[in-house]
Amino acid sequence: MDISDKKVYIETLGCQMNKSDTERILGILSHFGYCPCKDENEADLCIVNTCSIRQLSEDKAYSKLGVWGKMKKEKPLKVGICGCVAQQEKERLLKRFPYVDLVFGTQNIYELPELIQKEGRVCAVREKPVREADFNIIRAQNLNAWLPIIEGCNNFCSYCVVPYTRGRERSREVETILNEARNILKQGFREITLLGQNVDSYGKDLPDKPSLAYLLRELDSLEGKFRIRFTTSYPTDITDELIETVKNASKICECFHIPMQSGSDRILKAMNRRYDRNRYAQIVKKIRDNIKNVTITSDFIAGFPGETDEDFEMTLSAFDDFELDYSNTAAYSPRPNTPAAKMTDKFLDEDEKKRRLAILNEKVKEMSLRSNQKYLDCELEVLVESFKNGKFEGRTRNNKVVHLTGENISTGDFVNVKITKASIWCLFGEKTN
Ligand code: SAH
Ligand code: SF4
Ligand code: F3S
Fold first, then answer.
1. What is the DSSP string of 151-176?
2. Atom 3, ligand 3: which residue's CA is nearest?
3. Any idea which ligand is nearest the CA of 300?
4. Which atom of ligand 2 approaches the CA of 197 most closely?
5. Is 69 in contact with 52 (CB distance < 8 Å)?
6. Cis ω for the linkage preceding 232 (within 30 of 0)
7. Which of 8, 162, 351, 403 could pair with 34 as two cysteines, CB 3.0-4.6 Å apart?
8. Beta partners for 391?
9. pLDDT per position as a tens digit, 252-297
10. DSSP strand pairing (6-12 vs 34-36)
């Protein structure tokens, strides 16, 4: 492959971890003469960074490959596939898609320099990760920077493919993370979001066993005005130390993303989640009792195998009981290698899953509006993130989107805003300072 002054386009599907991986892949490729482009039609190399969480996500990757397969008939083009589907499907992808040139897994990113220089079609999928190396990172051009602190998952929830596509938990060293944070701040970012499939497990595999709370305090003590967020939390792994730290540290935002997955104890057990409704309730209460204006969000799955109407009702009532501010939702999708995919005799039919998902989504809207209305007439700090259609848009510390008006506003500013109106998905307000 000729590797001078070429253009690479990456289509990123899936979670923030994938977005962060794409930034690293672009950075590595920049050392080898590839600059990123925003239009796939201009690219010499097109890569899809895939997600395997549901069949729908996997199918999206294949349809993207199909588009590029057609483009390749018209002009020279290299086609690559990486991420969670690549990790799962390996060589099968080369067989199934004859126009694919490069397949690499989630553990092979730092091996890319060798891979892109190889002749012929290449497939590299490792089970154990290649050691991290010091390359550029080409971050998305906004005010928030993703910072992975732990990768992989040891939880093996019965429906989930992530432990198979991302491997076991691996924490990055505190110093590595702090250095990356310092670089991020030097580049002018105003917000850092710490990423991990389960951030509360941070440090358990490192020699000194630094906790997430410790890492957060170290980051909080870095100089400058900026915000820190972290996601995702596993309910029972949230410690008192973490709650205290979020309460006391000035830069850490008051948000917890704590997926509950189901409101029914029976289903939680079948999902292999290590808590029941009662335990979840205690954790939420502890957070709310300690942290003012905190936002608590969740993920729920509709139609897990064997879910009865009563189980589903328990999920709906969980929203009210725990006053959840927002939730991601999905219909259950059977995934390769997972125990739940073998419970075929308990599968719900597609229409029933869709029906439950629609009800769930209505509930999320109702909760989101209720949550937003709590802030009417309040004054909140907003980080101004963009200017779109003549309106400034930003977010509060507790992660509410705010459309704001007022004098002397620029993107990147922290401003105080009096909330005047609340809708389902955002707040409206006037700058006061
Ligand atoms: N680590 C996080 C999130 C992982 S994946 C956690 O533990 O919560 C993001 C979300 O996708 C999950 O929270 C779950 O709600 C959903 N999900 C995972 N596997 C799924 C499946 N097989 N079908 C439907 N939704 C699924
Ligand atoms: Fe998947 Fe469960 Fe791990 Fe989350 S905690 S990534 S849902 S196995
Ligand atoms: Fe998807 Fe992999 Fe993330 S399966 S949700 S891209 S960890």
1. E------TT--HHHHH-S-EEPPHHH
2. 15
3. 1
4. 6
5. no
6. yes
7. 8
8. 388
9. 999 999 999 999 999 999 999 999 999 999 999 999 999 999 999 9
10. parallel
